Amino acid sequence: MEYTQGVRFDSLGLSPEVMRAIEKKNLVMSTPVQAGCIPPMMEWKDVIAKAPTGTGKTFAYGIPIVEHIDPEEESVQAVILSPTRELAIQITGEIRDIAEFKPGVRTVCLYGGQPITKQIDQLKRRPQIVVATPGRLADHLKRRTVRIETAQTAVLDEADRMLDMGFIQDVTHLLDKMGKRKNLGMYSATISREVMDIAWVYQRDAAEITVREDELNKPDIKQFRMEVAANEKADAITKILNETGFDRAMAFCNTKGSTERVSKFLQMQGIDADCIHGDIPQKKREEVMDRFREGKLRVFVSTDVAARGIDIDNVDIVFNCDVPDENQDYVHRIGRTGRAKHHGVAVTFVADYPAKMRIDNIAQRTHNEIIPVTFGDDGKLTVIETK
Q: How many CB atoms lie under 10 A from the CB of residue 197?
């Protein structure tokens, strides 16, 4: 079924404890994906949900999970799988927010790049909710530091990316271990062949929820393109930030080297910037993301892979320092801004003819209007009139 609008949270029959947590976040209306997924998951039904990034999927499955947890029972009752450690950390924070007023509900986050001994200590506290990347959870199962056969609910968040990243064997192995599972929720921006294969084997009569990216929930993003020489991208970012006064910017690059160069040049110009990419240790990546979330970092520079699964709200502007190779990456990048009914801005730098060809193709294939701009004589952004 297709959902285009939300409902009031107080119409969903939620407990006073969970309603209190929702009200603390000043939320009254659910998003469409929450309206579609919460009722069937509350009834222990399987769910397969296709919804754009940034539409509130964590609360869509997190609320039913927290409602179902028996705080007196110390075995694992729910397992949430995430493709990346960054998303796993984000999910854990939101689940803990939902469970804030429900004493005895414990959540653990398991991912690679963190000492396993620290996670083993956390598992000794007998958490009922396990949020994990597939590889690290499989590792804990081998070590017998966690048991998941008691889990009643399993969720695959960003299922398409998880399976694209080669986790299909780990995921099926983990699902096979959950013999007492009552329901499986699969949440995905796209329903790929691999997602359908998992659904076919592991779900029965699943409620199908589709949230179309229509005018009601499509992000409000003004998109621009600008011809900028390869060595002048940091200068262009600085000029635009000085003109707009925006405080929270994300800049995407195609390579690790580019992220380093752009963040270093921005720092030289007095802009508080830092970067993450695949070669940066996990602890440093978390520190950079925390600084950005807390408003202590003005420009957060990243590659696509490192930024996967990071759910950061209130980004004022997104810069594409390089035109992405994949159309879907463009959509994911600009989707960091314009969330929750806020206006967003995205600027893509075009340094050469191949980049111009790619951005033309992206505009055509994704049905986005990407307006050409330049710096006027007064230093302000000026739209280039096209005939």
A: 13
- Note whether residue 379 is domain-resident: yes
Tell me which residue range forms the domain holding 85: 9-210
Question: Buried b / exposed e across 136-150, counting CB within 10 Å, b at 16+?
Answer: bbbbbbeeebbebeb
The CATH number given to whatever domain includes residue 225 is 3.40.50.300
The model's confidence at residue 56, banded by pLDDT at 50, 70 and 90, is confident
Confidence of residue 215 (pLDDT cuts 50, 70, 90): very low
Query: What is the model's pLDDT at position 216?
Result: 46
Domain finish residue from 210, 242, 268: 210
Position 284 scores a pLDDT of: 85
- The more confident residue out of 174 and 313 is 174
Q: What is the pLDDT of residues 245-283, one digit of tens each?
A: 888 999 999 999 999 999 999 999 999 999 988 788 878
Residue 2 belongs to a domain: no
pLDDT above 80: residue 338: no
**pTM more than 0.85:** no
Shared domain for 82 and 110, answered yes or no, is yes
Pair 205, 255 in one domain: no
Mind listing the pLDDT tens digit for each residue in 203-212? 999 999 998 7
